[in-house]
């Protein structure tokens, strides 16, 4: 099961570069990443090829982060699809700590959802929706 990290960064030039260089220095390959920022803070939402080492690097850098095991949901590519999935998780009191669209193809979209309880998230979303975890 893939684990994604949501890392809090200062929203200033070089912060993402500093994070990427620190991971590279440990030989950690970034597999997926999205990010953003506004005001004083930014974030990176990422997965790597070495989750334990990534956690160690982030801790060593003093960067606040949360992480969760990722469930990949395959849903119809239409307005409201993300709302449908996340409302089901919310109703089951499962917290989404990060989300990213992984891919689109032929009217379908794969959504990666890092949650605080991937096992329950799989059950709530069902086998017809969850394609990987």
Task: Explain this structure.
With 133 residues, the protein is of the alpha+beta class. The protein is globular. It contains four helices and seven strands; from the N terminus they run E-H-E-E-H-E-H-E-E-H-E. The N and C termini lie close together (5 Å). A hairpin with a 2-residue loop joins strand 2 and strand 3 (41-48). The longest helix has 11 residues, at 15-25. Strands 1, 2, 3, 4, 5, 6 and 7 form a seven-stranded antiparallel beta sheet that branches. 31% of the residues lie in helices and 44% in strands.
Taking the sheet with the most strands, its summary is: 7 strands, antiparallel
H and E string: EHEEHEHEEHE
**What is the number of strand segments?**
7
Roughly what percent helix? 25-40%
By secondary-structure content and strand pairing, the structural class works out as alpha+beta
Which spans have pLDDT < 50 for at least 5 consecutive residues?
A: none
Proportion of residues in extended strands: 35-45%
Q: Tell me, rounded to a whole number, the average pLDDT.
A: 94
Q: How does the overall form come out from the CA principal axes?
A: globular
Cα end-to-end separation? 5 Å
Radius of gyration: 15 Å
DSSP summary: helix tally: 4
């Amino acid at each position: 099961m893939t684990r994604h990290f949501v890392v809090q960064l200062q929203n200033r030039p070089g912060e993402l570069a500093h994070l990427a260089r620190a991971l590279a220095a440990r030989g950690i390959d970034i597999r997926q990443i999205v990010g953003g920022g506004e005001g004083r803070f930014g974030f990176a939402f990422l997965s790597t090829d070495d989750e334990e080492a990534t956690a160690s690097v982030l801790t060593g850098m003093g960067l606040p982060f949360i992480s969760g095991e990722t469930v990949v949901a395959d849903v119809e590519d239409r307005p409201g699809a993300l709302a449908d999935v996340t409302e089901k998780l919310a109703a089951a009191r499962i917290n989404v700590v990060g989300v990213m669209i992984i891919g689109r193809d032929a009217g379908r979209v794969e959504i990666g959802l890092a949650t605080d309880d991937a096992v329950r998230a799989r059950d709530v979303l069902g086998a017809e929706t969850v394609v990987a975890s």
